[in-house]
Design goal:
Layout: H1 24-33, H2 37-46, H3 49-59, H4 64-76, H5 80-87, H6 93-102, H7 106-116, H8 119-128, H9 132-142, H10 145-154, H11 158-168, H12 171-178, H13 188-201, H14 205-218, H15 220-224, H16 226-238, H17 242-249, H18 264-267, H19 275-279, H20 289-298, E1 300-304, E2 309-311, E3 319-325, E4 328-331, E5 340-344, E6 349-350, E7 364-367, E8 371-377, H21 378-387, H22 389-411
Antiparallel strand pairs: 1-8, 2-7, 3-6, 3-8, 4-5, 4-7
Helix pairs in contact: 1-2, 1-4, 2-4, 4-5, 5-6, 6-7, 7-8, 8-9, 9-10, 10-11, 11-12, 12-13, 12-20, 13-14, 13-16, 14-16, 16-17
């Protein structure tokens, strides 16, 4: 007749009475097979880290049925990594991957997702785990170009990232990537000139000129480069500093001091990149510079024609809009006689709740004028959170605080 724990004289190394043999594994397993799972969980939680590791090594040699019972104990004890290790040969691999993720073991999770055939989740898990080269390879195979560009930027390969962003038509992300080209890179000046062109096309000649002046101060090669000096002169004219432009042009051998005039409108039409507006949104208030720049690259600039619906009341939230130019009207509903609740202009933002909560839009928003805006889709933001765990924690913490403050305000 099999002895009960009370009849057994054996004691394991944690001081707990055990089944014959007395090891922690035998005691936990014995309890699990008798549906005393909660007792087994408590015993497992009371073990030291070294004892738990010895238990896992012993359990690895057990039968599949015995390991299944122990996996349930480890799940309830929240040793997700241990449960994943014991589940490796039990499957299914997608469940093993999810356990590794819960335990914070992202690379192991990615390997399990690979075995399960879920390449997209594997790529994201590799990126979270810092295995950026492996994630890049998978993103390339999936044709996920935005994710490829993000990986390239995080890997310190800005020229490759910029090339992908250029294909995607994401101007501000291309600029951000090119700004990462180091001074000693042979293509640094080429990158600076490309940035100047992009910024000027976006009606930001002053920002382009400031970058060029900084480059000239830092690089002797730049001060000798005719293309750089010619670009400096052109930008000086763009901002109305013609006399200084003439001085620069005079430094070029054989160059004329005259240059085509710049239309006055080009000099007085400033444009914002939107980075400052995005940074000012409360739920992003604790993001580091690096995380903020990564988020900025996720955003796309969009043009919305006058009269178009920006957000439809009752529809599923589609993401965040940050207004850069133009104005929108906020209505109580889509009806022609709906009450206008507000009019918003540059710097205002819409739909931030939909980035985190999946629910219907509470207001109807139409463009009063043509609008230029930054847009971050819900899918793009979720991928950002999936691959930036520290940033996700900060965002959710601030979101919770803001939500609590709103509840308190309503209660008062």
């Amino acid at each position: 007749m099999e002895p009960t724990p009370a009849e057994s004289n054996s004691v394991d190394e944690s001081g707990q009475p055990g089944a014959p043999g007395g090891s922690a594994y035998q005691v936990v397993q014995w309890l699990a097979t008798r549906d005393e799972v909660e007792t087994a969980v408590q015993l497992y939680e009371d073990l030291s880290a070294a004892q738990r590791e010895r238990l896992l090594r012993e359990a690895a040699a057990a039968t599949a049925e015995e390991r299944k019972g122990l996996v349930e104990v480890l799940r309830k004890a929240r040793d997700f990594t241990g449960a994943a290790r014991l589940s490796e040969s039990l499957g299914p691999d997608a469940e093993v991957a999810a356990l590794y993720e819960q335990g914070g073991n992202q690379v192991e999770a990615a390997e399990a997702y690979m075995r399960a055939g879920d390449i997209a989740k594997a790529a994201a898990a590799f990126e979270r785990g810092g295995a950026l080269e492996r994630s890049l390879e998978l993103y390339r195979g999936l044709g996920a170009r935005e994710s490829m560009a993000q990986c390239l930027a995080r890997l310190g390969r800005p020229l490759e990232a910029a090339a992908v962003y250029r294909e995607l038509g994401n101007v501000h992300a291309e600029v951000e990537a090119l700004c990462g080209v180091p001074l000693d890179d042979p293509r640094h000046l080429e990158s600076v000139l490309r940035i100047c062109t992009l910024l000027d096309n976006e009606s930001q000649p002053r920002r382009a000129l400031a970058l060029l002046v900084d480059t000239l101060r830092a690089s002797e090669d730049a001060r000798k480069d005719p293309a750089v000096l010619a670009e400096q002169a052109r930008l000086l004219r763009r901002v109305g500093r013609d006399a200084e432009a003439d001085e620069v042009l005079a430094q070029l051998p054989g160059a004329s001091s005259t240059a085509p005039s710049v239309p006055p409108a080009a000099r007085i039409t400033p444009a914002t990149s939107g980075y400052g507006y995005l940074k000012a949104i409360p739920i992003f208030g604790e993001l580091s510079l690096e995380d903020m720049k990564d988020l900025y690259r996720v955003a796309q600039q969009v043009l919305i024609p006058e009269g178009a619906t920006v957000l439809e009341k009752g529809a599923q939230g589609s993401g965040l809009f940050v207004l850069l130019e133009g104005t929108v009207d906020v209505f109580s509903g889509p009806e022609p006689d709906a009450k206008r609740l507000n009019t918003l202009g540059p710097g205002a933002y819409l739909g931030e709740i939909s980035l985190i909560q999946d629910g219907p839009t509470s207001a109807h928003v139409r463009a009063r004028t043509a609008v230029r805006a930054l847009r971050i889709t819900r899918a793009g933001f979720q991928h950002y959170l999936d691959t930036h765990e520290g940033a996700a924690l900060r965002i959710y913490r601030l979101f919770t605080r803001n939500l609590a403050a709103r509840v308190r305000a309503l209660s008062a």
